Amino acid sequence: EDQVTQSPEALRLQEGESSSLNCSYTVSGLRGLFWYRQDPGKGPEFLFTLYSAGEEKEKERLKATLTKKESFLHITAPKPEDSATYLCAVQAAGANSKLTFGKGITLSVRP
Amino acid sequence: KAGVTQTPRYLIKTRGQQVTLSCSPISGHRSVSWYQQTPGQGLQFLFEYFSETQRNKGNFPGRFSGRQFSNSRSEMNVSTLELGDSALYLCASSSYMGQIYEQYFGPGTRLTVT
Fold it and tell me: Distance between CA atoms of B105 and A47, rounded to whole angstroms?
């Protein structure tokens, strides 16, 4: 069974204090790993798709990386508007579009 | 392009009733998936429809069902509601990007069962 574990569950940062969010996964044939951002009361917003180990993608203050067992979402010099829950999900080969999600990491950035 | 839309946004129902939720995917997307999100379990996959056929199903009881229409719009139905069905129900539409399905989510329907 595919599994995704995210850590820590919650993270509080000072504005400008860089950090990383971890996503560990076990999946039978990884087709892709996704990162989403979710604000309270809203649907998840697509951030990145990573396909293979060694791949990296960046968007503003966010950078996602992928290894064979985990992914990291690095946040550089975060701002209060980066406060949200960050979700990691995997799509397995043969699963069509089904995503298996982790429980998410709630990030709070204080000014 | 317009995003994924879901109606209604909020619903309050009583135990034992049934409910139907609606989802309109992004134009051109033929795959629609449904997820249930609760604080304890997180996001859990319910089912996926592609070209009016269910092609993947999660681990939920038969009270949860769905369908897809020829215009790719989808509905999900929950019969005999239980208190534990209170959740945010999310619909996602997908396009196939050559090797992967990228999923885009709607705002969700917040269902409260009393």
Answer: 12
Q: Does B99 sit within 8 Å of A101, measured CB to CB?
A: no
A87 in contact with chain B, both atoms CB, cutoff 8 A: yes
Chain A hits for B43, CB-CB cut-off 8 Å, are 44, 87, 89, 99, 101
- Is residue B84 helix, strand or coil? helix
For tokens 């509601």, name the residue.
Answer: B81
Contact B88, B109 (CB under 8 A): yes
- Rounded distance between C-alpha atoms, residue B77 and residue B65, angstroms: 5
- pLDDT tens profile B9-55: 999 999 999 999 999 999 999 999 999 999 989 999 999 999 899 98
Of the partner residues B31, B42, B58, the one whose CB lies closest to the CB of residue A97? B31
